[in-house]
Amino acid sequence: MLHTHPRQNNIFNCCSIYDDALCIILTLRSSRKAPPNLRTRFEKWLHVLKFGELYGKMDAELDEVLKMEEGVEDMVKDLKKINADAEKRQLMETREKTRTVLKSIKNDSYFRGHKKGKVEGKIEGKIEGKIEGKIEGKIEGKIEGKAEGMAEIIARLHKGGRSIEDIATMTGLSPEEIKKLLATPKK
Asked: Given its phi and psi angles, is residue 157 left (phi above 0), alpha (psi -120 to 50 degrees) or beta?
């Protein structure tokens, strides 16, 4: 019993297109002969395409169920002709090998490119981080420098006899902030 689809009871009692396709695939996996329940054109062609390599050999015979399907027998005859001619067979094998090699090259290129992209991304991230760090450092330095300069000016004004209220008016700071700056020891 298969329980992959709610309407599917077993391999031979299918009731939907999904079920039929699944039945064909499961049957094809278990047998290289044409399954006894090939009912639709789709099922028959799917079987022939899957096992075309076997039917294309000179000694392989096409099942009666498949012979009755229009076009299947002609396709198998063409496959046998190709296999009978050594040059065409070699061409077909070369094409298949080329496809396999190209697929391998594409996969390899993808993984190399992916790795290269990661490395480039890390380098770019480090560079951006250094630049941002330098900019932030400069900004913080300027802010600290201005604050130290302001504290120095406030201390001089206070030593010169100015009141905290006058200094607050001149600098725009509150009297509490001025008292804090005067209380902080100089570096």
From this structure: alpha
